[in-house]
Amino acid sequence: MAVLARARSARSQRPWPETWVAAAFVAPAALVILLIVVVPLGRALWMSLFDIQLTRPGVEPFVGLGNYIDQLTSGEFWGSTGRALWFTGVSTALELALGLGLALLMDQPLRMRWLLRSIVILPWALPTIVNALMWRWIDNAEYGALNAVLTQTGVLHRYQPWLSDSDLAMWMVIGADVWKITPLVAILLLAGLQTIDREVVEVARVDGAGPLALFRHIILPLLTPVILIVLVLRTMEAFKVFDIIWIMTHGGPANSTQTIAIYAYQTAYQGFDFGRGAALGYLIALVIMVLAAVYLRLLGRTGRT
Amino acid sequence: MRHTQGRTSAVRSVAALMAGLVVVLAACGGPGSSSSSGTSGGTVTLNTIFMKQAAYSEDDVKAMTDAFMAENPNIKVNLEFVAYEALHDKIVTDQAGGAGQYDTVLVDTPWPAEFADAKIIQDITDKIPADFKSGVFDTAWTSAGYKGKYWGVPWINDTKFFFYNKKMLADAGITSVPKTWDEVITAAKAIKQKGTVEFPLVWSWTQAEAVICDWAELAGSMGGADFVDDSGNATFNTGGGLAALEFMKKSIDDGLTNPASLGFIEDDVNKTVGAGQAAMALNWTYGLSVLNDPAKSTVAGQIAVAAAPGTADTATAGVNGGMSIALTTSTKHPDEALKFALWMASQKMQEKYDANTLPEWKASFEDPAVTKAAPELFAAAKEQFAALVTRPVVPYYTKLSSALQVAIQEALKGTKTPKEALDEVAAKLPDLQK
Amino acid sequence: MSASQRINAQPRGRPTARRLLRRAFLYLGMGLALLVVLAPFAWLLISSVAEPVDLLRRPLRWIPEHIAFDRFAALTFGSSADSTALGFRAALLNSTIIATTVTVVSLVVGTLAAYAFARLRFPGRSWLILAFMATYMLPPIALILPLYQIMSALHLRDTPLALIIIYASFVTPFVIWIMRGYIASISSELDDAARIDGCSRLAVLWRVIVPVALPGLVSTGLLAFLMAWDEFLYALIMTQTNASKTLPVALNDFIGRFGLDFGLLASGGVIAALPPVIIAFVFQRYIVAGLASGGVKG
Q1: What is the 3-state secondary structure of C228-265?
Q2: CATH architecture of A49-128+182-301
Q3: What are phi and psi of C77, to 5 degrees?
Q4: In the CATH hierarchy, which fold is given to the domain comprising B42-158+322-378?
Q5: CB atoms < 10 A from the CB of B22, how many?
Q6: Nearest Cα to A129, choosing from C38, B89, C260, C289?
Q7: CB–CB contact B99 C152 (8 Å)
Q8: Could you tell me which residue, A1 or C21, shows the higher pLDDT?
Q9: pLDDT per position as a tens digit, C109-133
Q10: Which of B385, C14, C29, C74 could form a disulfide with C10 if both were Cys (CB 3.0 to 4.6 A apart)?
């Protein structure tokens, strides 16, 4: 009662500026995110403007955008960026396709559905390092389980060197990533499926639409916002992929799995060029930002609130 | 008024939240060891970094360190163990950023050049006792040498020995251990003919330092492994380097080397031999005990070791895969740090813990009490340790190695001829040297 | 019933055969999915109880000759004299502490900020969120050197706190990103009603929004937990001893310079996968429901 009375009298007061409230709400996050990191963020940006070679300490000439221009005109940069885009494109597409299939499956009124839904989390929960080493072990040319399965079922006649072949290695790496991430995508899509208004579906079905048509014309369009959100998340992660590829192939054979993040690491820690390494880091962030912006545009157009 | 109260209570709530946050963060400080080099009341603290699962096991290193601390009660040593792969990066991160927390670091053979130029480690040539210099194998010192000076104390001495399956060789009618690479090829052909295994030879030729090690060892006996001459010109595309690469390619073309070798690291080589899928291979010291362990190998008891084969001109050559303990430039206690390094590398310590790695002292190889642990291995080592070849000791080694790895792989795959591949890297050399 | 259930429900009168065929097809699909998901994991388990030599045989025997659980026993209950096991258990503890703290902190701090971004208007809103996302978008390699320096200067090297701070800095933007979508999809009429009743903004958040978005919070929390649980590069560089080593680093330590006991790594990996799986299992009903209640709908 007293609260309401105070409220009524309060309405005549000038409300606290929204900006101040916003500041109070955002301040803790800003503190957590930026406090320790803002200095390294700035320092890395600063470093990227100099020519810093570790084996030449003390001599660090200012080069402005020189490092950036160097990279943007370097074949290896574009090669590794291309590979990162290929990895991102293929793995995301596969994860989406398989994840959608899995999600539709998990949505069916099947017995033991709870089993599928619980088990499916396992690949995602396995630490990346274990996942990468496990697949390296499975793909091994001499004693890998993959070769064993394929030869014992008669699909292949001889053991194949999956990870030593420049053309195959990238596919094996993509496979390991897809195995781990598809469950995550499936769960996110499953949630999306459950929000679809059944009335719309019912009406369409009564009109005589078969399951395939229903999927194409009703479900898919309604699921698009979810798919786009998943796409944004996965694209950002996949483009800067490092751990899984590094552990499985170190970027080889013959640089065939060298993505941009691996190239950046090699530039800094093996080439001892920390100026260019920092520049590469920011270039990666730039590409991700552009990709994210593109997706957000698309998201906006689909009428997202 | 309610709004004012609302504003105040909002502020208060947020403030309380943030205070709580700070408390939580502070409480989670954890039992972190404040590992900064320090002196407190006469005690000197050293921070060191070693490798896990190394030639000396973690327990061995701890035992050696405990013994050191017992002898030197005013020195405390903090040990850190990391996987080998992480060693280089952790050292660089620590020293390059200027944090400089380590007093001694474990460095691998190719690193002294780049670390010295980057002023990460310091020159200790004048501080090493004379008996150390003369007592340790001369070629072992190359793992710590650069520009005529020594930048560390050799601690682990290792090279790639020649492992062979006695039974397979005997079955193919080969009675004596191959002593030259030509004999190896003959033996391999005989074994392949007999049908014992499809590919008698297996190597670690993946795109990593491993392939450079094999290549250098082969080149060492085929004309020399001085890949870059003193003026910085490439010599790897002629002489030993070229001959070695051509040998490698031919062995694949002749069907003697397992083509999967292009993706193999040393572990894979060991496992292939251990699975009975290969007859002969090069590998580091650790390989022998694994291959003869029934829990890890199907051919336990059949594997023997000898010094690496050579050619008519050079009896044997071994790639130097040793590691040394170096002092950082950031250390505030160089004397204590050196004392620690010399202790760890001393004859006494090395002989006591030689279960997994060979000592680097010449005297140890003459002492039957020591050699009886593995007479074959010691005999092979005695020969090979006196003929170690070092990969180029240049500050741009990592870049050179990366370029060479790609080139060697291209040559082995057949995309380029060995001469073409190596010439390309030689042409790039001035760029790499920048 | 969900949408696809409605699609797939057959009206009475259709031939039973077709329905049975359809169901058989679906069960087959489910079986296949389970197989693909579980097969590598099964192999992981087999490797962890087999002797190394059994895994090298050709043709490969799927059930190893010798089965021993000592690796699991050693890692879980082994004596402290076994430095590997000791390190592993210490890492398990560190990872749990770090991941839990990061999750709690980022959820609290992130939801606060997400509310502001979703509901309030203020200058520089779009720039600020971009700045926040920068830490998430930059690969670790760019920041590792300066971060190490700062942590050393603050004497935070080899402490869990260092990792908590670093992880929170890129997990929080992620939380903000997702929770902003959640909160934006919750009708602001709820907000208005509460404010008319005299609630401060904070009270609105705490009493109205959070309960409605709770399932979303839980699912975001799980994602955040896993991000912190799985991180490798920062952990590798910032940790030195068992005081702060996390699971990915401890598992990486199993890799010797020349050899890898895959069985041991497999055992470690299986144990390391358990906490996230348990958490996911416990909160399962929230997760799907939560994501459904508007989170992913955007």
Answers
A1: HHHCCHHHHHHCCCCCCCCHHHHHHHCECCCCECHHHH
A2: Orthogonal Bundle (1.10)
A3: -115, 0
A4: D-Maltodextrin-Binding Protein; domain 2 (3.40.190)
A5: 11
A6: C260
A7: yes
A8: C21
A9: 999 999 998 888 888 887 887 788 7
A10: C14
Q: Do domains B42-158+322-378 and B161-319+396-432 have the same CATH topology?
A: yes
Q: How far is CA A215 from CA A191, A210, A298, in A?
A: 16, 9, 21
- A40:C147 CB<8 A: yes
Whose CA is closest to A272, among C140, B118, B90?
A: B118
CATH label, C74-295, candidates 1.10.3720.10, 1.10.3210.10, 3.30.499.10, 1.10.10.60: 1.10.3720.10
Chains that touch A (3 or more CB pairs under 8 A): B, C
Nearest neighbour of C152 by CB, restricted to B101, B274, B277: B101
Using a CB-CB cut-off of 8 Å, the residues of chain A touching C191 are none
Per-residue model confidence (pLDDT) at position C9: 54
Which residues, numbered 247 to 286 in chain C, qualify as contacts with chain B under a Cβ-Cβ cut-off of 8 Å?
A: 252-260
Residue B431 touches partner A, C-beta closer than 8 Å: no
Q: How far is C83 from chain A (nearest CA, A)?
A: 20
For A177, A221, B293, the CA distances from A228, given in Å and listed in that order, are 19, 11, 54
What pLDDT is attached to residue B25? 39
Taking only the tens place, the pLDDT of each residue in A165-218 is 888 999 999 999 999 999 988 887 877 777 676 777 788 878 877 777 878 888
ipTM (interface pTM): 0.82
Q: What is the pLDDT of residue B392?
A: 85
Domain coordinates of chain C in residue numbers?
3-43, 74-295
Interface of C with B in 184-243 (CB under 8 A): 198-203, 236-237, 240-241, 243
Does the domain at B161-319+396-432 match CATH 3.40.190.10? Answer given as yes
Residues in C 46-65 with any Cβ partner in B closer than 8 A: 51-53, 56-58
